[in-house]
Amino acid sequence: MKRNSIVFKTVSVVILIFFLMLLITNIAINKKNESLTEDIINNLEISSESSNIDKENTIVVINKTYDNTIFDFRTYSLIVMGFVSVLGGGIFYLCIKKMLNPVSKLAEEIKAVDINNISEDLEIIKPIKGSSEVEELRVSFNSAFRKIYQDYKSKRDFSESVAHELKTPLAIIKARLDLFKKDPQDIEDFTQSMDKNLSRLDEMIESILILRENKTPNLTETDFRSLIEELEPDFINIYGSDIKIDILGDLNIKTDPLLIQRVIYNLLDNAFKYSKGKPVRVILSNEEKTFELIDQGPGVSNSDLENIFEIFYRADKSRSRDTGGYGIGLAIVKSIVAKLKGRIVARNLDKGMSFKIYF
């Protein structure tokens, strides 16, 4: 038991107060008992001196005076016990109130917390002088508040980013409509622009829904080589017949084939955008249970490397809108990999980048 804990302090106070109550009660009752005894002895001595009685052959008879004395003694004892109980209860109340003052201060600190004014680097609830339990509560509350704030901040930033990203294609559509109203001749250019921006909105919304989907993975034996080979024709249609995927090794593990196919698709799509027709290498390993994709793109700066999996994040060189990306693809990859209990690591190479997934 910690000496600074509420339990230790409470037990110590109870024992001390109980001891004091017994001590005071015992002293008071003994004093009264001594006083009554002296009165009885004095009365007997006075009575015997004032009469010619043979003291050796005298029989003392206790009458109602003795009964009254016993009654007075018991009454006095009850009064003393009642007084001591009230006194002990009052002392105990004051001690407990003082010990629980830090808890009251902690409650006030918690009430004063504003989630919009929380600093991630500083302590949310400042240290409060008190017992070890209060300090443990403070640390636990700080930890819980930080987790809540991180989730709140993530959702707030996500909402702001979604609003910002949706605003761009909507503004373009509105501008094209205004232009078309003034000059309705160029229908083909107008329809192409509408189709392009509506497709962009549709793709963005679909990606956001995938990112926020909370579906339980359906784990089955999955052949990664087969999944990659199935996706290759799709990329040939998008990027041309010159693209090439070099697959080394094999990987067969239990995972969700639909989710992992989305991961592979996003990584390959990201690689082909920045490799500019250069081959993309995929290294599979059954022994290490890893999937690694290596592209020959421009890479990113070390400062950007830590943030490339954040939603709507774009590094200046490799995540610009010129490539048609929205900063969602890699965020989806990280989200799915985490859902599948895996881990993804991105790093710069001498030429290009590596994305390695550990299952």
Head-to-tail CA distance between termini: 44 Å
H/E topology pattern:
HHHHHEHEEHEEHHEE
Give me the oligomer status.
single chain
In round numbers, the mean pLDDT is: 75
Compute the number of helices: 9
Strand arrangement in the largest pleated sheet: 2-4-5-7-6
The helix-and-strand class reads alpha+beta
Strand content: 5-15%
Nearest-angstrom radius of gyration?
42 Å
Assign an overall shape.
elongated
Q: Low-confidence parts, pLDDT < 50 over ≥5 residues?
A: 316-324
Query: Would you count the extended β strands for me?
Result: 7
Largest sheet: 5 strands, mixed
Q: Work out the helicity level.
A: 55-70%
Describe the structure.
The protein is an alpha+beta fold. 61% of the residues lie in helices and 10% in strands. It is built from nine helices and seven strands. Helix 5 runs parallel beside helix 9 (329-339). The longest helix is centred in the middle third of the chain and has 51 residues, at 132-182. Mean pLDDT is 75; it is low at 316-324.
What's the arrangement of secondary structure elements?
Blueprint: H1 6-49, H2 64-99, H3 101-111, H4 132-182, H5 187-212, E1 220-223, H6 224-239, E2 245-248, E3 252-255, H7 257-275, E4 280-285, E5 290-294, H8 302-305, H9 329-339, E6 343-348, E7 353-358
Parallel strand pairs: 2-4
Antiparallel strand pairs: 1-3, 4-5, 5-7, 6-7
Helix pairs in contact: 1-2, 4-5, 5-9, 6-7, 7-9
Summary tags:
alpha+beta; 9 helices; two-stranded antiparallel sheet; five-stranded mixed beta sheet; 359 residues
